[in-house]
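Complex 198.
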Amino acid sequence: MSHKRVAILLSGGGSNMLALLDSMTGDHPARPCLVLSNDPAAGGLTRAAARGVATAAVDSRPFRGDRLAFEAALIKPLQQAAPDIICLAGFMRVLTADFVSRWQGQMLNIHPSLLPKYRGLHTHARALAGGDVFHGCTVHEVTGVLDDGPILGQARLTVTPDDTTKSLAARVLKQEHQLYPQVLRRFAAGDRTPVCLG
Ligand code: GAR
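Predicted structure with glycinamide ribonucleotide bound:
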């Protein structure tokens, strides 16, 4: 069997990236080909390298204000790795529609809210401020619109009166580690049926 090649893009610690790497063994239809970051100091790069996965970084700071130039640089290691699937996993740069269109239908993102609620940042604080009964996370196909695109999976939890932004972030992150690998496995097998957890 020839495996699908998966590139993972991150900006931080990479706990979702690790959950994805750990899942891609045995009869899984995909294998990691690259972990790429916009921050050379991202903890996720060290963790990926420790597991023997190829890593690369394109520092976004020198490109501040010039998104197109940043993306032109980001494309190079991606083209070299030739992924079939790109997973954004805590990648905190907004990508242009032009960049996304190169991998249309091949790029996934995980977002810490029940989309279409709370696109963008501070999702846990917004769910608390909204008095939401349910909160959670979503994996979706990436389109040219931020935190939009067909939903491929959601995990839902019930917000308790004791929850804080910190407790919600921790509870949702735990769900992310369940959800993202399940969606990737299905997606890599050509199945886009949404995964529903919780
Ligand atoms: C995760 O909670 C992910 O959903 C979020 O960043 C965190 C990364 O954690 N992504 C976004 O907010 C994207 N807009 P990780 O580095 O430990 O995987």
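The pocket of glycinamide ribonucleotide is lined by residues 10, 12-16, 44, 89-90, 110-112, 173, 176 (CB under 6 Å).
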